[in-house]
Amino acid sequence: MKRALFTIMTLIVLVSACAPAPNVGAITPPYIETGIDPDSWVTVPTGEFPYGQHDHMTPVDEYQIMVTNVTNEQYASFLNKALAAGEIRIGEVEVEAGESVHIADGVAGYYPGDEFHGYKHEEEIKAGDKLYVPLDEDGLRLTYNGQSFAAIPAYANHPMTMVSWFGASAYCEFYGLRLPSEVEWEKAARGTEIGEDGYALPFPWGTEIEANNANFYSSFDLFEKMFGKLGNTTPVGFYNGKTYEGYETQDSDSPYGLYDMAGNVWQWTGDVYEDQHYRYLRGGSFYSYEVDLRVWKNNSASPTYYSAAAGFRCAQD
Amino acid sequence: MQALKQRWNYLFSSTKGLALVAIAMISLVTAIWGMLSGPMVEWGVRDVVVRLFGMVLIQAEREGRIIMLYHTIAMTVVAVEVYFITGMLPMKKHQQTTINATITIGYLTAMIFGLLFGYFGHNFVFHGLFLVGQSLVFFGGILFAAALWPWNKEYLLPPESPKAKTKKGVDLERVAFFVMAVATLLSATFGAVTGSYWGNGHETFLGEDLIRVPHKTALQKAIIGHLHIMLTLIAVALTLIVGNWMKFKGIYHKIAMPMMIIGTIVITAGALSVVWLPWAHTTIYVGSVLVMFAALMYVIYSWDVLIKEGTTDIDKPNFFQKMTALLRDPLKFGAGWQMVFMNFTVSGVGIFMAVKLDEIFRVWPHRDERITLTGHWHILSGIIATIILFYYADIAGMKGKARKWFGWIVIIMSDLAFGAVTVFSMKRLFVTEIEQQNVVNWTMLLTDIGLAAVLVALAVFMLWRLYDLFLANGRWADELKTERRLRAEEEIAESKRKLEELEAALEEELK
Predict the structure, then answer these.
(1) Cβ separation of B42 and A218 shorter than 8 Å?
(2) Phi-psi category of A29—alpha, beta or left, where left has phi over 0 and alpha has psi -120 to 50?
(3) Are B58 and A207 an interchain contact pair (Cβ–Cβ within 8 Å)?
(4) CATH number (domain holding residue A155)
(5) What is the tens place of the pLDDT at every residue in A25-76?
(6) Do B434 and A23 count as a contact with CB atoms less than 8 A apart?
(7) What domain range includes position A252?
(8) A209 CA to chain B: closest CA distance, Å?
(9) Gap between the Cα atoms of A226 and A240, Å rounded
């Protein structure tokens, strides 16, 4: 009897813990207005800052950078303008990934290619049409009616995701902007101060991270409460000290006033390094553990990579 | 006072006592430090532990802290293996005592002060003592290698011995132990030299963070070589230990030992030459094949022995009788089984990754590739730990139902956890990020259940041994008595042999 009871209890625990989780791609959250303007910019002044985990003082010239990630609404607007200008096309496009090539349906545009040195593991990024955004995959928060693009209303102010490095770079270039370099991104995220512990800031808002500072794995944010532990994107500028539907956030902007520089979505940066084809992403995402939200941590992927957890913001001189 | 002294003698002078202390220390560290990561963070346990113990966890120092933790645990595992080896191989008693004492003081100093430095504020006196501890372990290693010297006349095997040997009778198993010890010392030196540049051109990093950096510095490559070969050599040592435990001999032994010796040399040379040679990986593959083939010989032999021993009363045992015989002792079966299981979760995955690196894994984002790497070596470390536990549980006198329950819980639940971790780490092969939630939930749950069960079994085992220490005539007293008796007998035999030698020499002189 005891053994049967034990078995039943164990099964109940297992089954209840593993009830089917909703697919992030199929989720529609409520629209939440954060009050942060995604068209706003800040200027980061010329000067040195402590770069990387080991705080190497690194000079950076003055530049401007967006306060938030590019939103779905902004990207939809870009696609409509670029489509009208004939700078992008919609249809099948060859995507090279590793040693394989596959055909994807999506938005594509021309990229002039990278210098190739044939270094170990380096892949050649040839000139040609590149996939910006796939149209037939879960996780895309845009719709296309055959003529124009629109953001899914609930996701209009969420960061644009499912965008490759080519698609991110093209957005910035279309407006005469560029992706920030890794160094610029990090300076904007952590500022120049050295803290009392002798180190520069590990997080944009300070030295420690709490669940309501940022959107990361198992941070129990509003959207995780709705959709499960892996969560979803949050609207840009969500962690600004406001309370949404009873969920209280901390004001977690960076020393220069940027939001979401830790968590929510990884952000493409613009550097193209010699002897490798990888592009680098910064900031961690809602899939990341908190350690990957530390400002010096990076991620890398082929420029063809896109994900429900990767977006971008732009910079300019 | 006498009671305390006797227990002290047991814990710090007998093989079983020393192993018990070291395993208890690892268990304690695992129990406390295990609460700083994984689901413990989500459940808020980490914050409680940090406050309770007054830990100072600065974000920028995390990688350094983890490296200190790895080193303290690795030093202790090395100490446990050394205790086992000095206890099982013929060796002069004063050498055994000196080696064990040096290594014990070394690992305890390294562990205590390493963890104090890493997790309780950077007092550099503690760092110095951490280095002193490691140096003592290294010094103990030199004494250990010297004591193992296989060409010593008294360690030669007689012609009728069924173990692998040279024409002159040199014990090839002892050579394999010796080669492993020397390779470990060499590889430790590699790490130490690089570590000496710490803060002087060399900065702390975790190997898995650098995999995609195309131009690594020599110091970075040296560390990567060091960490890989040290874990490999710990595994080599353990394979030799369990071989000796199972009285490995005969044709399989004769095939295995030369392969283990050559494999250890080749794989060490390969791992360390990563610094200079672009084709070092090819050397590593060659060495790995040889070492793994030697381990396969052990598995075949040990399972064959288990089957034969378990079917002695049956004339022509059928398949099921053979299987029953094979599985009747989970500790002895488990040592070989975990090595086989390792092929699915570690070696197989590693080979698949190497073959498909550019086609699959380098297409994934770095964070996903990184998970496969950390999963891979955590599983290998876990498998090594379970095999050590099987051997220790056997020499600690675990018998009857306790032996079966402990053995099968460790085998089944650890394999469940390691299997789940493997699926988790390779999930991108079959599920995209946005569809991964169920896979993540299931694999994490199974991992937690598996690891928790193993840790509970270990805790019960440790508590049993702790309780035993409070008994006046507990198991510990018998173990101490037995070990002292055996030691005395060996010393008498050694003295007799010396006396005979002296008499022979005297006779020679008088002729």
Answers:
(1) yes
(2) beta
(3) yes
(4) 3.90.1580.10
(5) 566 788 999 999 999 999 999 999 999 999 999 999 999 999 999 999 999 9
(6) yes
(7) 2-316
(8) 10
(9) 20
